[in-house]
Each structure stands twice: as structure tokens, then as C-alpha cells.
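As a warm-up, study this chain.
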Amino acid sequence: MKDVSKRLFNQSLDRRRIYINFIRSMQRQFCVGLTFCFCLVWMLVVSVGPDLVLPAALPFSSLGALPSWIVPLACLTFSHMIVAGVFRQTRKAPQSMTRLPLLGAALVTAAIFHLLWVLDPRVENWLPYLLSSFLFGGAGAFLRIEMNRMLGWLGAQNTIYQGIVGTLAAAVIFVFLANAPDICLFVATPLVGVLVTVSLWHCIKGIPYNRYYQKADDIKLHFPVKFVATSLVQGSAVGVMYLGVFFTGAHSFGDEMHFVSNVFAMVAVFFCIVFFRLNYNRLVYKIAFPIIAAGFILLSIIQTNVAIGFTTIFLGFCFLDLVLWSLGSYLIKNMGLPAPWIASCLGAALCFGVLAGSLAVIAARAASLPANLLYGWGSLYGCVLLAFALFLSNSNNLKYGWGTVRPGDGASAIDALDAVVLFLSKEHNLTNRESEILFLLAEGKTRRAMCAELCVSADTIKTHVKNVYRKLLVHSQQELVDFVAREKEKFETVSEGD
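Now compare it with the structure written out below.
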């Protein structure tokens, strides 16, 4: 029982290390959290507006109103697909700093066109809406690339920390805007685009050029099958939820649902990383997916109060979304994969999944299926989600980057100790020499042996060891060995799903 407890729960030293790293992250990279916040707010504000009323000549016009985010989401999906295809062929993405003012102009222009349509959402005045949707798709795709580049430099752990703060701040701002006077929306809509650009530029200017822009000429770009499948399933669940919220009339509590779900999701993420020894497999497939599945099952059971089911689904989505941001950061920083490839593939999969789930709900409504039958399908869909989680979960995922590398590639040939040393070195910004010292310390080598192996003086070894201890928040070699051993378990490959 004691061994099981050690394997499942963080020790007090690990919890203390997480608290300290969280505080350090807030002190050193707080602008990243702001950028995360403004990015989420821009996505929400510019895609949400008055309900669309389709002309009688168009398909699905008999359904009446539809949510306004359908067309912007479609544009965003195709933009991600185009970027992924172009990058795979050319291995090139915008690198000049002039791209940021252009991106900022696109963000602000999209917001302005969206605002013009919100002020007059008639069918005859749909040109601003279509222009806003087009700009939303293009600017949103490149904004995701920049976010992945920045978070890839930051690292997986700091992405989690900054994402928690940024998501909570975005939820507060969005609820405020949703309940504030219209003048606040008029001012905020273009302003958020400016804030995204300024905060992103502030974050990027402190990153070394050669680390921010990765060369992809000699990297094998495998299609990340499992990562894409995970995002597709996630997106389909969200699409079903959003259209379900809309068609059941439950969107009247949408703002409160959004806020409450975000808060609970971020608290759940922080609680999990502090108290439990979790890897990405467990966070994604054993926590997030079951939460989403439970939401669909609750929809079937508690039909008199659909808010409970929808809020649970959104909670799981928020939890999963943040974990996948962190996983993308891990693939970029620790496995050396290019940010444009990861951002475009995953963005396309997520958005396409949302569209597919939405179209499924629209088709069911067009077929006039009984409400009880639609709710009953919630339990079936929940079981399907659990089946997908069981199928996709495997401890080899971490080693092969959810399908981004193949057995035999250089990135997959690394053993467990090399992998954890590389991970810790990049997450804690160790120098090359400090990384070598960390590896030797983890092997249990004495300082005299390290002097002989590295051909340096005892004072030099002492300085490097002191720096390694300080960055990893340990106080002795035995404590470091124990810490590395616990981290190593996440990288070891077993034959069954983790």
C-alpha cells in the first residue's frame, strides 16, 4: 500500500517544488499569462455575436437561428489545414518581426468588422460578418502558431502554470464583457486585438532568435495520428455540447457556465499536478475524457436540469484544452518538433471536430428526432468517449510523441534516463555543462569521478553542482537521485496502457 501511495501521490518535497516553481513562473513570465488571457478573450469576443437567421433559400433555414460562430470556425479550420499543407511542403513559416504588426492589424480589423455586424446583424448586412470570419480564420491560425512558438520556448510545466492564470483571467473578463453595457464591448472588441499583439511582442522580444524559430529542414514531419485523434474526439464533444446548449435554450446560462467551468477546471488542474504524480496519459485519458463522458451521461440522466451536464462537459473540455497546450509545448521544446506543424495540425483537428459535432446535432434537429432520443444518445456518446480514451492511452505515447515520431527515428532511440535528463534540463534551463553534471549525479557518480570524466577542476564541478541543485530545488545528491527516479517513471515504456 505504501508503494502504491508513493507511485500515485507527490511527496511533500515534490509539492513544495511545484509551489515554488509556480511562484517563480508568475514572477518571471507573467506576460505569458496575459498573452494567453488576451488570446482567449479575442477568440471568444470576435467569434460570438447575435444568432444567425438564414435566408429561406439556404439549407437548414427551417431550423431558424444558428450560433454565429459556425462560419468563423469553418474559416479557422480551413486556415489551419492550408497552413499545415503549405508548411509540410515548404518547411517555411513567417519569421520576420514585421509579421507581428501585420498580425495585429488583422486581429484589430477582424474585431472591427465583427463589431460593425453586431451593430446591424441583418442578412443584408452580412458583408462585415463574412469579412470578419475570413480574417478571424487567417489571423487565428497564425496567432496559434505564435502562441505555440512562445509556449514551446517556455516549456511544458510553465505552460500549465501560465495557462491556469491566463484562463482564469480570460473567464473573468469575458463574463464582465457579457454583462457590461454595450459601450464596453465597443471599446474592448478592437482593444483586445491590440493587447494580444503588444503582450505577444513583449514576450517574444526576450527569447533568443535561434530558439524561437526552429529549423525544420532536416526533421521528419510525421502526421501526429494519436494527437490529432485526441483533438478530433475532444472537438466533436465540444461541438455537440455547444449546439446542444444552443438548441435546448440553455444558452441563457452560457456566461455563468463558462465562468464556473473554467474556475473548476483550473482548480482541478492545479490540484492534480500538486498532489498526484500524473503524466499526460493519465491527465488526458484517465481524467479529462472521463469528465467529459460523465457530462454526457448526466445529460441523459438529469434531463430536467441540463445545465449540470453541459457544465460538466465544458469543465472537462477546459481541463483537456490546457493539458493539450502543455503537451504541445513538450513536443516542441523537448522533442524538437516545429511549432507551425504542431499548431496547424492540432488546430485543424480540434476545429474540424467541433464542426463535425455541430453538424451532427444540426442533422439530428433537421430530422426532427424526439428530444428523449437525443438525450439518450448522450449516454451512448459518453461510452464512446471512454472507449476512445482506453484505445488511445498507452505509455508509448510519451516516447513517440503521440505519433509525431516513429520507432527507429533519432528522437525515439533515447533511453529513459537520457529522456528525463533532457526533459529536466530544458524545463529548468540548464546549460550544456549543467546537463552533463545532472546526468552524472543521477548515475550516482562522485565529484572526484566527475572531475576525471569531464577533465575539469573540483571547484568547477562544485559550482555546476550548486547551480543544478538551485535550479532543480534539491539540496543533496540523494534527493536529486530520488527526484530523477520519480520523473523517470513517466518515460519508461511498458507493454500495457498506462
